[in-house]
Amino acid sequence: MGSTVASAQTNPIKGITNIGQWVSWNPESRQMEIGEGGTWLIEAGVFSEYQPGSYKDSGFLDARGMLLTPGLIDPHTHPAFAATRELEFEMRSQGKSYQDIAATGGGIRNSVRKLRELPEQKLKDLVVERFTMMLAHGTTTVECKSGYGLSTESELKSLRAIQTASQTSPIQTLSTLLGAHEIPDEYRDNREAYISIIVNEMIPAVVEAKLAQFCDVFCEEGVYTPSETEEILSAARKNGLGIRFHADEFVSNGGAELAAKMGALSADHLMAISDEGISALAESDTVATLLPGTTFFLGTNTWAPARKLIDSGATVALATDFNPGSNMNLSMPFMMTLAVIYLQMTPLEALQAATVGAAKSLGLASQRGAIYSGFQADAVLWRAENYRQLAYFYGVNHANHVVVEGKQIH
Amino acid sequence: MGSTVASAQTNPIKGITNIGQWVSWNPESRQMEIGEGGTWLIEAGVFSEYQPGSYKDSGFLDARGMLLTPGLIDPHTHPAFAATRELEFEMRSQGKSYQDIAATGGGIRNSVRKLRELPEQKLKDLVVERFTMMLAHGTTTVECKSGYGLSTESELKSLRAIQTASQTSPIQTLSTLLGAHEIPDEYRDNREAYISIIVNEMIPAVVEAKLAQFCDVFCEEGVYTPSETEEILSAARKNGLGIRFHADEFVSNGGAELAAKMGALSADHLMAISDEGISALAESDTVATLLPGTTFFLGTNTWAPARKLIDSGATVALATDFNPGSNMNLSMPFMMTLAVIYLQMTPLEALQAATVGAAKSLGLASQRGAIYSGFQADAVLWRAENYRQLAYFYGVNHANHVVVEGKQIH
Questions:
Q1: What is the tens place of the pLDDT at every residue in B283-340?
Q2: Between the CA of residue B28 and those of A232, A399, B32, B45, B222, what are the distances in Å?
Q3: Does A92 sit within 8 Å of B328, measured CB to CB?
């Protein structure tokens, strides 16, 4: 019942048997595969092999009548925030836009003020709660951005809170420095100085403390220009961080093209991507990470051109963009619902984007996001007859059992 | 975790104490009221009085840190269906419209074929499962329509399945005969004969067997005309049933005006309502029951004009329209989310519409939908700091405890 699970058992299991239906990317045939019945064996946290028979040993998780999918992967979230922003949500119902609210001191800057005041331990506790809810909804790997601190001290605090939260939760995390989420108020008239702090202080400090794998920039009109983005992300790369983009969310400014040119792992949002941007992603290894929950929550009706991206050959991932301002939602299955209704993706494409597509967006495509020999044993058993029902029967949490690295968490 | 709750304890409680925040319609001041702390006492299944202090007696439900609202009321659902329709959902992702699918034998007629084949006991079991999920998401009263039978025998079967399901579930139900949901295939060329069956067979049989309180007609271009609707609902009223309308969903055909003229309890959908229809509802006691989940699920972007309805003085209710074709969702909090984002309703108006507005739509406004002396003790305790978070933090089930007629169900 409900979302906050107290008990975090972690029983290693030998496999998942009597599977109703299982659906996964097959890395050899390079397509999604649908199977029925049988057993997936697990050894040392990794899927070893598939056997058509069933096992009665108590070490096996019985999946009778259930749907088995890889653990869902959420490759774009902002979980380290101090306070919810439901008052701004109410303001939007009265006709204010997200940009209007930001212009009057709300938005990201509202979160920045509150985050800076919050003790690290309390922030960590909040992040743990959010991880628990994510796991309960089938997310086994999550990318977590900082970005509500906007000072070296508070960005480090955010990333440490994510790291310590991760150590107490079975969820698997990757962290991203997003010092370039906004220009902090105190540098409004001197943005170059703040960029210099990101480049010369934050990035080295984060790398030194091993607090993040990635660096991200909000490349957007009114936030960071493409050339500022390039400056920051070049520095990140030189320091050994993988790079990610908030690109073409509201205005097309060449963000996707720049992401492809720089070899970013992922270009995210893309509601306003140009045809040139689509071609650039299709010809690159940069994943198009789509966040339909943000379009939904902001009510803007500007949906990323998923169909064009897929048809042109780009790899598409789905993510929640979980954050207190533009999408207060952490359910990956709901993103699959939005993908089918609003992005014209099939239920199978949506599941692919929420598993192997998302894994590629995090540089993990050879290890996670598939139920296959040699892949990490992250999986979800759903109360559903078939994979199409996940996106279709929305608003109810169908996750029944969650397995992370071969251990049963729920 | 998840949605299907096995344990249905039913402990009578003496009250709800240490309330974090409580929000309810006040029938004396005729507005929504927000309070903090204190205790609501319950006697014989009814709220007796509010006390500012707290109680330590074990018979009280401790609501520390939780939000208390009236039990949610869902005044428009179609829970008596035999099979889910995720294949049609997939077809829509590939560009087929709801009407395209209906024209090729899918849609309601697909559900009719499967419902007629399903034994009544199995249908009842499915309805019980759905009631359990509704309760788990905070719905304490639900209106349930037949309408996938389209023959006297199978409409009666549907209503009996709802009735027997209701007897084994703590949820409270009201039933609606919706024999006029479609024209059955076998009467395509002789619709007058089918209407005559509804009027002369179904309605009397349903009243005789005490299987429904209401009668409803899908008054829409291509389904039932306004004059056919009037004929059927006049007969229903003569037989003692309350009347409800599916009105102005896709095309404005005077359905809302007719509902008001006939004194219907509710006119539902209203995405295409005319200004005359809005005026007619505003001047009547007929509730405008809005189903934003259907617009969302069909992806049509045609939202009912909630703001105009409220501002002109009509009473607005929210409902899920839970059904396998046009909205596979049974979460009233998600309807509140849609209401805030897409219907420009405030979070407080959304809660009002999901409680007292919905109660009025079912003719229960003096007994349910409010936490107030003399009102039935139906309530939900939510893991939320305040009522705005219910609509804002969507996609997660925040319902923690559910109370029906003074008994704790969860």
A1: 999 999 999 999 999 999 999 999 999 999 999 999 999 999 999 999 999 999 999 9
A2: 61, 44, 10, 21, 44
A3: no
Pairing of strands A379-382, A67-70: antiparallel
DSSP A40-86: EEEETTEEEEEESS----TTEEE-TT-EEEEPEEEEEE----SS--H
For residues B65 and B21, give the distance between their C-alpha atoms in angstroms, rounded to a whole number: 8
Please report which confidence band the pLDDT of residue B4 belongs to, taking 50, 70 and 90 as the band edges. very low
CB pairs < 8 Å spanning A and B:
142
| pLDDT of A4 strictly over 50 | no
CB-based contact (8 Å) between B362 and chain A? no
The pTM of this model reads: 0.96
Bridge partners of A17? A62
**Euclidean distance between CA atoms B314 and B309, whole angstroms:** 5
Domains present along chain A, CATH in parentheses: 11-71+369-408 (2.30.40.10), 72-361 (3.20.20.140)
B198-228 pLDDT, tens digit per residue, is 999 999 999 999 999 999 999 999 999 999 9
Is B299 part of the contact surface with chain A (CB cutoff 8 Å)?
Answer: yes
Q: How far is A340 from chain B (nearest CA, A)?
A: 5
C-alpha dist (Å) from residue B247 to B181, B217, B260, B274, B294: 12, 8, 11, 11, 14
Please tell me if residue B262 touches chain A, with a CB cutoff of 8 Å: no
- Which tens digit of pLDDT belongs to each residue from A334-388? 999 999 999 999 999 999 999 999 999 999 999 999 999 999 999 999 999 999 9
Residues 6+ apart with CB under 8 A from B180: B147, B195, B198, B216, B217, B218, B223, B224, B228, B229, B232
Model confidence band, residue A100 (pLDDT cutoffs 50, 70, 90) = confident
Written as one letter, the residue type at A220 is: E
B300 in A contact zone (CB under 8 Å):
no
pLDDT class for A52, splitting at 50, 70, 90? very high
The C-alpha atoms of residue B213 and residue B229 are separated, in whole angstroms, by: 18
Q: Is A344 on the interface with B (CB under 8 A)?
A: yes
Above pLDDT 70, what percent of chain A? 98
**Closest partner CB to A392 (pick from B84, B393, B398):** B84
State which residue of chain A sits closest to B344, comparing Cα positions: A93
Q: Give the DSSP H/E element, type plus range, for residue B297.
A: helix B292-298
Which residues, in sequence order, are CB contacts of A93 under 8 Å at separation 6+? B340, B341, B344, B345, B346, B347
Which residue of B93, B299, B331 is in closest CB contact with A346? B93
User: Cα(first)–Cα(last) distance of chain A, in Å?
Assistant: 12
In the Cβ-directed half-sphere of A53, how many Cα atoms lie within 13 Å? Answer: 3
